[in-house]
Amino acid sequence: MNQQFRCCDLDQPFLLPPSLQDWLPQHHLARFVAEVVDQLDLSGILATYGRADGRGKRGYHPAMMVRLLLYGYAVGVRSSRKLEKASYDEVAFRYLAANQHPDHDSLAAFRQQHLEALAGLFLQALRLCEKAGLVKLGQVAIDGSKIMANASRQQSRSYERLSEKEKALAAEVERLLAEAAAADRREDDLFGKGKRGDELPEELSTAEKQLAKLRAAKQELEREAQEKAKQAALEKQAQGNKPRDEAQKKRWQRAKNIPDSEAQGNLTDPESRSMIDGCNKARVQGYNAQIAVTAESQIIVAQTVVAAENDKQQLLPMTEQAQQNLGRKPDEVVADSGYWSEHSIATLAAPENAISVLVPPDGPKTMQSAELPANAPRGPQAQQMRQRLKDPVERQRYQQRSGTVEPVFAWIKERLGYRRFLLRGLTKVRGEWALICTVINLRRLYRHHWLEHACFTS
What we know:
Blueprint: H1 29-39, H2 43-46, H3 62-74, H4 80-89, H5 91-96, H6 104-113, H7 115-119, H8 121-131, E1 139-148, E2 156-158, H9 159-191, H10 202-238, H11 246-254, E3 264-266, E4 273-276, E5 283-294, E6 300-306, H12 315-326, E7 332-334, H13 342-349, E8 356-358, H14 364-368, H15 380-388, H16 392-415, H17 426-453
Parallel strand pairs: 1-7, 7-8
Antiparallel strand pairs: 1-5, 2-3, 4-5, 5-6
Helix pairs in contact: 1-3, 3-17, 4-6, 8-17, 9-10
């Protein structure tokens, strides 16, 4: 029987060089990322390159590096080593890299060096979503979720323990330094002062590194305590030493310039905190990631990361950031009871802001109970909010919150697997979170606009 097949010889030569454009389907996500990057303003990154004499080895083009990073984050690949491997193994990455293969050191250095500029792409991507008609500031839902730090809880120590260990290590370093000085004098006597001996003994180097980690963790706890004390003092002055509610009164009483002896500091990432993860009620070493999401299209319009375990102080800054990012106020802001703050609600509802707020002062169990517990908020805003939420229409609008913002966190954690930050320190973690939120918006734009119109138009 005559069977005819296409040639699949791996050694077959091509008469013409292959085109990168033939490698992917027409409406592939990688093509969309490439077109988006062409529209982004990368001048802040480009300005850091170049020599006046034009000498030096040519580097990888920043646009190509940005393409790889954005696509990698969009499909759950963010490790620099995995990105390097993907530039060889996966067609989409190879396409975006223009068949080049940046090594993992170059990728990691690029991300570190330009993290602030990369975080700034969030606002540019948001503008593209706005152009596409995806951003309507009707109802905005705010929520937070705990993301694990690149640190272990086993590396956490109480402030008291850190202080004790610091004293012991400082004494050990002083002893080792004295021994090293004595050894230097003996060698000088034997060989003369011209002998080189600038390498630190291994045990001294280790002790000094441990001492530096302890002091960094201890100083971060002290900085946080001083910041809380300063904030409490400002509030007291503004309110004539009269707390708004019992919660604020207790916070004022706890605010001191020195940390509580049981306050936990981490040796690996001092700015991270031990927090309760609301999903599984387990304690994790991490950060509190925040997003504000539009109800209609689930576009992230504001995002940040904080080291505070609870959300009480995040309602105002998140609402203000959403307004600043888009130049207009949302009609309504919804959040769960963890965001309840009498002051924040009153500020947003004031005539100069006139933003409708739906934030229950009580948790789900208390809302269903006939009697309020003794520690329940009892200010005028709390009383008014309870009355509002008795209205079935208002209650239904509030319940839309879970279907707006929680699926976004589910996508980030479950589909992309982002349950732990790669970078360390609050500033770097904020940059990484901005990148994650950027690609979430780009995926939404890709799905709802680019695919629908078969091409991306500015």
